[in-house]
TrEMBL record:
Keyword terms: Coiled coil, Lipid transport, Lipid-binding, Transport
Keyword Transmembrane: no
Family: Belongs to the OSBP family.
Record-level Gene Ontology MF annotations: cholesterol binding
Annotated Low complexity bias: 1-13
GO biological process: one example: lipid transport
Species of origin: Toxostoma redivivum
Regions annotated as coiled coil: 398-432
Region listing for Disordered, in residue ranges: 1-38, 308-337
SUPFAM superfamilies in the cross-refs: Oxysterol-binding protein-like
Name of the protein: Oxysterol-binding protein
Biased composition (Basic and acidic residues): 14-29, 308-330
């Protein structure tokens, strides 16, 4: 998420690079609503029908090698490397953050529960679902320009959302969302710390995420797991999430500890999530298990331990045989393990969350979910009320979405040059950059530095917004 920069490294010129041919898209799938130019259908119940397809299919990346770019930049800071636009997806990172809200029904479920344990279970499922949209999404979002914003109001889902790029070096994105029924507030800031390990790129998402359930006077905080993209040198790109995620209920003292397990040598743990919820006395209340790409279940600790012991006794020989088969098939190219099994259901478990089905033509739309497909939609009349800094108005993203890759690449270079020139002008005049909708402060629950919403965005006074496009 930090590749693009106004400090380009190396002599690569993406505008002069030949763009590969577009993939064929089934004409019957290309536009089910028939609305791509700002016209939004209205369903019989009065709710707006959002688009179900992008205006143009994605371009093939088979003619390009990430390594051809990265090998010139070994030892450099990854946030200062400019990647060719063909590796992007037509969304800004601010829009990517908004995908946290795809499974907002889990927040609504948490608000409705009277039992604090059930609330924590729903919040834990929401935290896992927030990274589920990244499954098979190997295209990188556009790095936001300083001062860039994105808003989303979904009356059908009951929330509104605003985000702003508050810092360029380091790249920091701040966001704030609230329920239209005033039942929750969801906010935080994301600072992706990138590391290049040769065959893989690791993104550590620093920054605190906070969810407040206003009816219950509760606040939960956590940090997302680490994301790693494999095979940047050779082979098929694939990603995994790993690391410990600790969700704390600051009102009750309850805590949920989730272990996003790394793939491992034989791929046995690929995509697996396992953890538990404990009370303030560190007593385990339930066990959570599943896959962040599929579903999440919970059961009581006794049932879980009994099942695991029984499974271990009955499958030792089978496990040994399977590992030998997988080991013989793996090669040195760091290919994604072909693990066919799904989550092993433990009798008596309760389903907390299941991933949404993607559109049938998702593979030709950057593997977007139905929610992601709608994020850059520019509806009729919307341009007149949006902030001039909104992602939907970015010409490079808009042109890429429409399949105009050469124009998108040139626009991207123009915007980066404009950002460089503006920064130099501020330095010359000794003028500091001031954020518009967020300010630096302290998270009231963790006591750590955070970016807090200043308010006022939805009053729609955009008279002092910067000209960044």
């Amino acid at each position: 998420t930090g590749f693009d920069s106004d400090n380009s490294s190396g002599d690569f010129s993406e505008a002069n690079h030949k763009v590969p041919e577009m993939l064929d898209l089934d004409p019957h799938q290309s536009n089910r609503t028939g609305k791509h130019n700002g016209e939004t259908e209205i369903q019989e119940n009065g709710i707006k029908r959002h688009r179900t397809s992008l205006p143009a299919p994605m371009f093939s990346r088979s003619d390009f090698s990430v390594w051809s770019i990265l090998k010139k930049c070994i030892g450099l800071e990854l946030s200062k490397i400019t990647m060719p636009i063909v590796f992007n997806e037509p969304l800004s990172f601010l829009q990517r953050i908004t995908e946290y809200m795809e499974h907002i029904y889990l927040i609504n479920k948490a608000c409705s529960h009277a039992d604090p344990l059930e609330r924590m279970q729903a919040v834990a499922a929401f935290a896992v679902s927030a990274v589920a949209s990244q499954w098979e999404r190997t295209g990188k979002p556009f790095n936001p320009l300083l001062g860039e914003t994105y808003e989303l109001t979904r009356e059908d889902l009951g929330f509104r959302f605003i985000s702003e790029q508050v810092s360029h070096h380091p790249p920091i994105s701040a966001f704030y969302s609230e329920g239209l029924n005033k039942d929750f507030v969801f906010h935080g800031s994301i600072y992706p710390k990138l590391k290049f390990w040769g065959k893989s790129i690791e993104a550590e998402p620093r920054g605190t995420i906070t969810l407040e359930l206003l009816k219950h006077n509760e606040a939960y905080t956590w940090t997302n797991p680490t994301c790693c993209v494999h095979n940047v040198i050779i082979g098929k790109l694939w990603l995994e999430q790993y690391g410990m995620v600790e969700i704390v209920n600051h009102s009750t003292g309850d805590k949920c500890v989730l272990n996003f397990k790394p793939c491992g040598l034989f791929g046995k743990e690929l995509h697996r999530v396992e953890g538990y919820i404990q009370d303030k006395h560190k007593k385990k209340l339930c066990v959570i298990y599943g896959k962040w790409t599929e579903c999440l279940w919970c059961t009581d600790p006794t049932t879980y331990e009994t099942y695991k012991k029984s499974e271990k006794r009955g499958s030792e020989q089978k496990k040994k045989s399977n590992e030998e088969d997988i080991k013989s098939e793996n090669d040195e190219a760091d290919e994604m393990p072909e693990v066919q099994d799904t989550v092993q259901f433990i009798p008596g478990s309760k389903l907390l969350w299941r991933i949404n089905c993607r559109p049938p033509n998702s593979s030709q739309m950057y593997n977007f979910t139905s929610f992601a497909v709608s994020l850059n939609e520019l509806e009729a009349g919307m341009e007149a009320i949006l902030a001039p800094t909104d992602c939907r108005l970015r010409p490079d993203i808009r042109n890429m979405e429409n399949g105009n890759m050469d124009v998108a690449s040139k626009e991207k270079e123009r915007l980066e040059e404009k950002q460089r020139a503006a920064r130099k002008e501020r330095a010359k005049d000794e003028v500091e950059w001031h954020t518009r909708w967020f300010h630096q402060g302290t998270n009231p629950y963790t006591g750590t530095p955070d970016w807090l919403y200043s308010g006022g965005y939805f009053d729609r006074d955009f008279s002092d917004c910067p000209d960044i496009y």
